[in-house]
Amino acid sequence: MSNMSEKELGKKWDRCLADGAVKVGTGLGLGIVFSVLFFKRHTWPITLCSGAGLGMAYANCQNDLRSHYLLHRKSKEE
Predict the structure, then answer these.
(1) DSSP state at residue 75
(2) Quick one: pLDDT at residue 8?
(3) In angstroms, rounded to a whole number, what is the distance separating the alpha carbons of residues 19 and 30?
């Protein structure tokens, strides 16, 4: 297996960090809205939604970084 180039790895890390910022920020925003509107200003909805966003970002990043090492089937052209 070939190694990933430094430039390609840098692009993947940039995508991971950007995706993480978006997902955690969205989770934080949704948590604040749910906390204010539905849960009488408790802090657990903010923590829960931010954690869910962080978990999704981590899973996407892990999948993106491992995708280089997966074997992909070529489609048959008939």
Answers:
(1) P
(2) 84
(3) 16
Longest CA–CA span in the chain (Å) reads 62
* Beta-carbon contacts of residue 71 (< 8 Å; ≥ 6 apart): none
CA distances from residue 68 to 1, 8, 40, 57 in whole angstroms, order as listed? 10, 10, 46, 18
How far are the Cα atoms of 1, 26, 51, 70 from residue 73, in angstroms, in the given order? Answer: 15, 35, 35, 10
Whole-angstrom Cα distance, residue 16 to residue 39?
32
pLDDT band at 1 (very low <50, low <70, confident <90, very high): very low
Q: What is the pLDDT of residues 35-49, one digit of tens each?
A: 999 888 888 989 999
Q: What is the 3-state secondary structure (H, E, C) of 36-54?
A: HHCCCCCCHHHHHHHHHHH
Which two structure tokens, joined as six digits, stand for 22?
A: 């978006």
